[in-house]
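explain this chain.
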Amino acid sequence: MQLAPARPPHRDDVRIAAVGLLGGLVLWAFGLGMNPGRLFNGSWLLVPLAAMAGLELLRRTRPWFALCAGTVVLAADQCTQGSLATVLMYTDLVYAAVLYGSPAAARRIPVGSGLLTVGSTLGTLAVWRQPEALLIGVAVGLITFAPATTGVLVRNHREAAAAERLRAEQTALLAEMDRTQAVTAERARMARELHDMVANHLSAIAIHSTAALSIDDAATTRTALETIRENSVDGLAEMRRLIGILRDSSGDTEPVAAPTLDGLAALVEHARTNGLDAALTLTGTATGLPAPVELAAYRIVQESLTNALKHASAGRVPVVVACSDDRIEVRVTSPYGDRDGPRAPGSGAGLVGMRERTALLGGTFEAGPLGAEPGGAAGEKVWRVRAVLPLENPVPEREST
């Protein structure tokens, strides 16, 4: 087992040791001792003085060892004339042992020094039976108990300050995490809105432009170009509106009201002008509904019609929106199979956006091929989109268009 290299003494500890040693030398030079007439007089007091100064170098790196060794040195100092500098450095070792020592030492040293103070007071009083014996207890308390309690107060203050700094750092970290999550969620929301607003127009443009290029008929080409122009103008207007809102940070721009179920008829009619045989069935009461739920239902219908325009085979596309007391159910079905006409490319982002919208509201979402729809042609397969949006405690999602 390899021992860790010893840490060098802190520069403040070096200064304390130097000042204590120099002060003791000055007191000795003037012949100022605390215990005249002891066993070892003269320069003998310099030995514990130098030893105590050396232990001061360990007050921060090895506080418990310095305190134990300092106690022995202090006892040896009492056999000499004694130096006030030695006693003062010992009180600093008691203080440092509480401040820099282990938590167990910080708890035990004040208790031990307090018991020592009380014991020495009662013991000397019992032996001498003189009031002056109380001074011994006071001296012991000043040397041991006072610096120990001071160390406890300073240590508690430092620990409280460190805990506050840690709490502040954790708060800042949590705030940064919340900000990052908010930015990510906002970017995802903007991506969904941008996709839902523009994809319908661009899909119609792609399909009709392909038809105009592939069919050599002047009337068909003119109709396709008119549809292309209408969708490009509408898409450009919506793009400009979104970009204007994103660029304006002054708060002067008023956002357009979020779409509601009342706009589904116009949405389906627009799909019919693009060549989709869509029909709307709206049941239940569509008033007084939570705005986030209405927005989600509208966008799901919009994206479903866009997907049908891009991928569905020829046939009817029924749109059913059923409103009840606790939920809104959206069902859009379209013929599923080989497509004779032009097909627009898809990326799958629309299904992801619809699923995200439903999940944010705590609802359920399904999309995929099924068997024949009731009332449909025999053997016909359909693609169905079904979303159930609860009306209780909807998660708000702001409309940015």
